[in-house]
TrEMBL record, chains A, B, C, D:
SUPFAM superfamilies: all-alpha NTP pyrophosphatases (SSF101386). Transmembrane segments: none annotated. Keywords: Hydrolase. Signal peptide: none annotated. This is Nucleotide pyrophosphohydrolase. Gene3D superfamilies: MazG-like. Pfam families: MazG-like. Residues 109-129 have a biased composition (Basic and acidic residues). It comes from Pollutimonas harenae. InterPro entries: dCTP_Pyrophosphatase, DCTPP.
Length: 129, 129, 129, 129
């Protein structure tokens, strides 16, 4: 029997409220809400993940771990991570999704799916083949 | 002359510290840090954005705005948004990027790039053609 | 009882052999095969699909159908479609996958999965929720 | 002075005409053309590239090069490559883009951009930082 933690009582894992408000104001000031359908925002998110991917595509894994040591690369990485975060929060906002609650539930679900003792050192669980 | 706000003094827009710690512990408990190179995590992020995209691909924009009204769709959307957020925070963590600082700088940059009075009601600035 | 067509006997649906050879020579001439692991090429493919997505992200569906009427947009679309095709063929090549055979089997599978009379006018089958 | 080859005279690098026709008939038989706006098809393409990415995300580069040796992985890879090819050809079709011409021009452009003697053994040209 799984004893689900009451998520509503636990401390927040993430707080995006100020950013969500700032983005809502940013869009309202420019009359951009009309363009911010979830469909469009998902595409914008894809575009930014694509730009992030282009930074790492020819790197080895070892090089990717050291990406922060090159100032130009580090700056580019920061900007793309920010872009992904901005669109993700905006998307959750227009969809009315509470990101913290969503994250809490997902983390709990993952903990039940991958018990530490069984998943240890294996990436097998990832490959859904 | 642009008078840059001292970002370090402003209130945080986003706080992901508890989630970042939780994910670090989650990975350590399963000996998964070895798989979490930035290169791999960017790919995992791509996979999740792909799953999010599949929810919306055949919807009209109007349907996408009403996605929350169908309980099954709403649940799927929540899970995928959570997955994207989890990998994004984990990625920033292994890269040593402060997401709040990155977001603050990007938002400021966007405000300077798209002055409210000039960008009003136009999506032109987006198309980099 | 499903009577599978012998794919090996049917006329090809797609022929990418000359392009595959051209790309192999292109990479060999530049000593780039070392960078062309499937992992890296999948990421390059992601990057190009991201660029393609950026062209369409703020368009309505109707505007996307008319994308060819603007010469600049048409040119950008052509280049991104080409980039996706180039990386896809290169990826199939290094993985030793016969794209024509793969496409034939998939099309046959789809025909069995979505009988014309039952799938008529519905996009429901797409949403895997 | 660059002496551009007359692309229209050269042998085709790729022939997708039979697949393009097959997909048009497939969509017509199911009354699906209404869903096949370029915007929607680009999203469908993203979804498939996401599924392809999930196969490779936790592999090392060396493991990705050997992906064909595991029958289950090889089968999954084939199906995803086919899906990407199907949507790409369908997308080019609804946009009225001649994929062979697009690919010919792009390959020529790349040859001019990366002269073999200068690009030899370097992945530098890729990183657009």
């Amino acid at each position: 029997m799984t004893n689900h933690t009451d998520v509503s009582q636990t401390a927040p894992l993430i707080d995006v409220a100020p950013l969500s408000s700032a983005l809502e104001k940013f869009a309202a000031d420019r009359d951009w809400a009309q363009f911010h359908s979830p469909k469009n925002l998902v595409m914008a998110l894809t575009g930014e993940v694509g730009e992030l991917t282009e930074i790492f595509q020819w790197m080895t894994e070892a090089q990717s771990r050291a990406a922060g040591t090159n100032p130009d690369t580090a700056q580019a990485v920061k900007e793309e991570l920010a872009d992904v975060q901005l669109y993700l929060v905006r998307l959750a906002s227009v969809l009315g999704v509470d990101l913290n609650e969503a994250v809490q539930h997902k983390l709990q679900k993952n903990a039940e799916k991958y018990p530490a003792d069984k998943a240890k050192g294996s990436s097998k669980k990832y490959t859904e083949l």
